[in-house]
């Protein structure tokens, strides 16, 4: 376990990122979900109906899951399969599936590291990355698939307080053309990247990236 992971595990409490009061249901987008293998989810409207009408019982629940998953759903998205020799399928964050417009809040004090509109099919869409510091350790959290309005009024270095409203979940197609959800990821080192960071990796790079990106459940602490 990395020093950051130990620090997050020991931290007493983080502010909830989603506060809509709905219970959570764990979603599985690996080959273990046999229902995925017989469906064509290349059309976002069909994918969204599958998630919210079937899996989440007409949006009665929030969906959650995905860290470290080897996801079959990326087979329908060229964004992840352009490199035929190293297709990306290992998910590095946690997804929270909730309706477009759902408010999102900062889990702890931060400053805005960077933001961007990653406007490609299957990409993050509007994205915000925050910088945090705990006990002298700097790390980052990424929020992807947001609404375009979430980027308004931002500037690098803008201070953010724990519990402050920072964004809303975006609708498709502006959110990268996905069913509405938040991709939430913890990152130890951004390198030289701004406004973007890999959220899915090739299986051969799994250990490296999962070490670089600790389990977001260390912050979310959502009970199912």
Give a description of the structure.
It comes from Dyadobacter fermentans. The protein is globular and about 50 Å long. The longest helix is centred in the first third of the chain and has 12 residues, at 44-55. The chain has an eight-stranded mixed beta sheet, with helices on one face. Strands 3-12 form a two-stranded antiparallel ribbon. Strands 5-10 form a two-stranded antiparallel sheet. The chain has 224 residues and is an alpha+beta fold. It is built from five helices and twelve strands.
Structural descriptors:
single chain; 224 residues; alpha+beta; Glucose Permease (Domain IIA); eight-stranded mixed beta sheet; two-stranded antiparallel sheet; 5 helices; globular; Murein DD-endopeptidase MepM/ murein hydrolase activator NlpD; M23ase_b-sheet_dom; Dup_hybrid_motif
């Amino acid at each position: 376990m990395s020093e950051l992971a130990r620090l997050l595990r020991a931290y007493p409490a983080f502010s909830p990122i989603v506060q809509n009061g709905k219970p959570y249901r764990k979603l599985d987008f690996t080959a273990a979900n046999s229902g995925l293998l017989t469906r064509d989810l290349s059309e976002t409207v069909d994918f969204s109906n599958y998630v919210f009408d079937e899996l989440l019982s007409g949006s009665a629940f929030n969906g959650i899951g995905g860290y470290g998953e080897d996801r079959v759903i990326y087979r329908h998205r060229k964004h992840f399969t352009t490199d035929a020799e190293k297709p990306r399928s290992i998910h590095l964050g946690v997804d929270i599936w909730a309706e477009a417009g759902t408010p999102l809040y900062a889990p702890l004090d931060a400053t805005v590291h960077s933001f961007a509109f990653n406007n490609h099919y299957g990409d993050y869409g509007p994205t915000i990355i925050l910088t945090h510091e705990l006990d002298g350790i700097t790390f980052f959290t990424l929020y992807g698939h947001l609404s375009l309005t979430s980027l308004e009024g931002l500037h690098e270095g803008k201070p953010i307080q724990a519990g402050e409203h920072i964004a809303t979940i975006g609708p498709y197609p502006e959110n990268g053309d996905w069913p509405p959800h938040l991709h939430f990821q913890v990152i130890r080192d951004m390198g030289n990247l701004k406004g973007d960071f890999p959220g899915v990796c090739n299986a051969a790079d799994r250990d490296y990236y999962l070490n670089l990106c600790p389990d977001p459940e260390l912050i979310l602490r959502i009970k199912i």
